[in-house]
Amino acid sequence: MNYPGKGLVDGLAVTARNFVGSYFYTDRLTTVQYPEERVQTPENSRTFPFLVFDESPDKPRCTACKICEVECPPKCIYIVMDRDEKGKPRQQPKIFDIDISVCMQCQICVEVCPFESIKMDNDYEKSRYGRFNELMLRLPDLLKSNEYYRQIKPTEAAAVDAKLKAEAEAKAAKKAAAAAVAAAKAAASPPATPPPASPKPPEGSAA
Amino acid sequence: MEKIYQLLHALLPSVPVWTVWIAAFLIPIGFIFGVYLTIFAFTTLVERKALGRIQNRYGPNRVGPFGILQPMADGLKILLKEDIVPRAADKFSHFLAPVLIVVPGLLVYLVVPVAPGMVAVDLKIGVLFALAVGTVSVIALFMAGWASRNKFSLLGAMRAVAQVVSYEVPTVMAGVAVIMAAGTLSTLTIVERQGGGILNISNLFVIGGLAESARCPFDLPEAESELIGGYHTEYSGFKFALFQMGEYLAGMAMAGVTVTLFLGGYMGPGSGPGLVGGLISMFWFFGKLTGMIALNIWIRGTWPRLRVDQLMGFAWKVLLPLALVNIVAVGLWHFLTPRPVAWVVTTGWLAIWVVVLTKCNAGAALEKREYRYI
Amino acid sequence: MNIAFWIISAVTVLGALLAVTLRNLVHCVLALILFFIGIAAHYFLLRADFLGAVQILIYVGAVAVLILFAIMLTHNVTGTEGPREVLGVKWWSGSAIAAVLAILLKKAIQGDALSAILPAGAKAHSSAAEIGKALVAGWVVPLEAIAILLTAALIGAVVIALEEIRKSR
Predict the structure, then answer these.
(1) C62 contacts on B by Cβ (under 8 Å)
(2) Residues C101 and C146 in one domain
C-alpha cells in the first residue's frame, strides 16, 4: 500500500528501531571505549623496532654488529659496542638508541639482521610531551622478551623460533659430526706416542 | 507580567511602585533566560547522544556521567577560542549579525504560555508577534553572509535567506488557519480554546517551522559539507556559539509555538488554575515541548537533506497550495454544522488536494533508471 | 506627549538621519531597519498593535531584505569609490525638497483636511478583529483590487522568469 510519504515514515521506523535497540542489543554499537578498551590490531601491523632477549635482558640476541645502523635509510639507529675492562669487545650493545621521530618504520633493520634480534613492535601509544629527549628510545626501553614477541606476533615468532632452533640444531649436529670425525680420526690413527712418563717439570704448579 | 506586578504589589504594599514594576519585569525574563537557555544546553547534549544511538554509537560520555557536563565543556571551550574577524570584513555587520540572530529567537518565548495565565506578555496579537519577530532573523542571515567578504558565505546566506523567506509563507498560512478556528490572535486564548480537531494542520506548521529554523532536513545553509559552513564560515569563538544558540533557540521557539497552537499548550489531565494545577500544566507544556524537540532530533537523524531547488519547489509548489487548501478546509469545518458531515467533507477535500498535488509534482521525481554496463 | 514618545522619536529620527548620511550602503539599510522598528514602536505607542506587528513583519522581514538584495546589485556598496555624496550639491537640494514636503505634511495633518476623509468614530487604537471586520465589510472592494494587483505582479514576475529561462536554453 503506497501512500505519499511512505518512504519517510518507513525511514523514521528504521531509526526508531535502531535507537531503542541500541539500549538492549549493545553488540550493534561499534564504539570502542578507548582508553579502557583497545582495538585489536592485526598481527602484521608494525610501529617501531624493539630488541629481543631470550632469557634475561642482560643477554640480548643483538651482537652490536651495526649492520642495521648502516642499512637504516634515515640513520635513526646509533650503536656502541660494549667492551669489557680490557677493551675486548663483548658481543653486546652498550648503547642502542633509536630516534622514533626519525624512524620511518621501513623494517629494513629487521630484514638485514642476521641474528633475528631486532623486530617490529606494534605499540602505537608512543606520544610524549617532549619532542627530542622523550622520543629517543634507549636500550632499556627497547629490550623486550621473546615471550612478548610471541604474544604480539605468534606466527612470526613461531617461525623465528623454529628457524633459530633449526640453526642451533644444525650447529650442534655439525659440532657433533666434527667431534665424531675428530674422535674417529683419533681412534683410527695409531695412538700418538704418549709423552715420556718422566716427571715433567711442574707447569707452574707449585707442589 | 501584569499579573505578577499585581501579585507582588498585593504581597508587598509598602515597596515603592517602580521597584515592584522592575521586579515584575525581571521575573518572567529571568524565567525565560534560565529555563530556555538550560533547555538549549541540554538539547545539544541530548541531540548528540540520540543521534549517536541512532547511528549505532554512543554519544559523548566522557565529560560527566553519561556526558552530562558536556555542554559546560563546550561552553568553556568556545569562550576561550580566539575571535577571528577577517581583515576585509565589515566590522559592524560582522559584530551585529550573531546578536540579531539570538534576539528574535529569544523574543518569541515572550508569548508562549507555560501554564494557565502564565505567559510573559499577554499580547492581543500574540501569534502575529511571534511570527513577525521570527522574520527579523532573515536580516541577520544576510548580514552574516555579507559581512564576511567571502563569496561562499554570501552564496550560503542567499540560499538561507531564500529558504527562510519562502517557508515563512506556508508557516504563516498554517498559523492563519488556527487563528481562524480559534477566533483570536492571543496565544493564551488559543490554548484555552483548543479541544477541536485541529491536528491536521500541524503537519504544515511543523514542516514550515523546521524550515524556518533551518533544521534538518532543510539545513542546507548550515551543513558542513555544503559551502564549507554557509553564512557562518568566517565566525569563530563566541560569535559562532551565538549562531548555534540562535539556531537552536529558533528551532525550540518554533516547537514551542507549534505546541501552543496545535498540541494544546499546557492542557492535559490535571491542569488548571491554582498552584498544583499550574505545576501540572507546566509539566504538560514542557513534556510536549520535549516531545516536539525529540521529533526534531528524530527527523534530523533520519532524513537526508533537500537540495536547494528541491527545497524551494517543495515550499512553493506543495506547501503553499496545501496551506491555502487548509484554510478553506478550516472554513468548511467551521461552517458545516453537523459534525460528522463536517469531518467527512473536510477530510475528503484535503485528501483530494493531497492526491492532486502529488500527481502534479510527480514530474520532479526521478523515474526508475536503467543502467547498462557495456 | 510622554517620555516614551520622545525616546522612540529620537531613535527613529536617528535611524533616518543615519540612513541618508552613512557611506556604506549596507549600513544605511541597517539604519533604515532601525527606522522601521522605530515606526513600529510608534504604532505600539498609539495602541495600534496589529499595525505595529505587521510593520515589523512586512517592512523589516520583507522590504528591508528586498532593499538589501537590490543594493547588492549596485557596484559601489562600500562607498569608498567616487566622490563623497553626503553634503554634496545633490544632497542639499534633496534635503531642501524633503524639508518643504515635511512642512506641507505638518500643515495637512494639523489642519482639518484629514478628518474629512476618515469616517466618523474612527479610534486611534483598533484591534485586529475590528480591522478584519472593516476589511471584509466596508473596504472589501479595495481589498479585492489589491489582491488582483498582487496576483498580476506575481504572474508578471513568473512570466519574466520564464522568459529568461527560455532564452537561456
Answers:
(1) 135, 165
(2) no
ipTM associated with this complex: 0.81
Dihedral class, residue C79 (left if φ above 0, else alpha if ψ from -120 to 50, else beta) = left
B53 to A8: CB separation less than 8 angstroms, yes or no: no
| Cβ contacts of B184 on chain C, cutoff 8 Å | 129
Touching partners of C (3+ C-beta pairs < 8 Å): B
Residue C159 has pLDDT above 60, yes or no: yes
Mean pLDDT lowest among A10-19, B164-173, B194-203: B194-203
CATH for A49-145? Answer: 3.30.70.3270
Q: Which residue in B56, B299, B302 is closest to A29 by CB distance?
A: B56
DSSP reduced 3-state for C102: helix
Strand partners, B98: none
A8, B58: Cβ pair inside 8 Å? no
Alpha carbon of A12: minimum distance to chain B alpha carbons (Å): 6
pLDDT digits (tens, 9 = 90+) for C70-114: 888 887 777 666 666 667 788 889 889 999 999 998 888 777 666
Tally A–B CB contacts below 8 A.
37
Residue C63, min C-alpha distance to chain B (Å): 10
d(CA C142, CA B329): 26
Total domains in chain C come to 3
Please, are residues A77 and A108 in contact by the beta-carbon 8 Å criterion?
no
C-alpha cell at B368: 526508475
CB atoms within 10 A of CB B324: 16
Q: Are residues C16 and C74 in the same domain?
A: yes
Q: Would you say residue C55 lies in a domain?
A: yes
The verdict on a CB contact (< 8 Å) between C57 and B93 is no
Residues from chain B contacting residue A7 (CB–CB below 8 Å)? none
Residues C97 and C121 in one domain: yes
Q: What is the DSSP string of A44-109?
A: T---SEEEEESS-TTSBS-----HHHHH-TT--EEEEEEE-TTSPEEEEEEEEEEETTT-----HH
pLDDT(B334) > 80: no
Q: Does residue C101 share a domain with residue C65?
A: no
pLDDT digits (tens, 9 = 90+) for B220-270: 555 544 556 677 777 888 888 898 888 888 888 888 888 887 777 787 777
* Closest residue, chain C, to B129 (C-alpha): C53
B168/chain C closest Cα distance in angstroms: 10
Chains near A with 3+ CB pairs less than 8 A apart are B
Domain extent, residue C112, equals 87-125
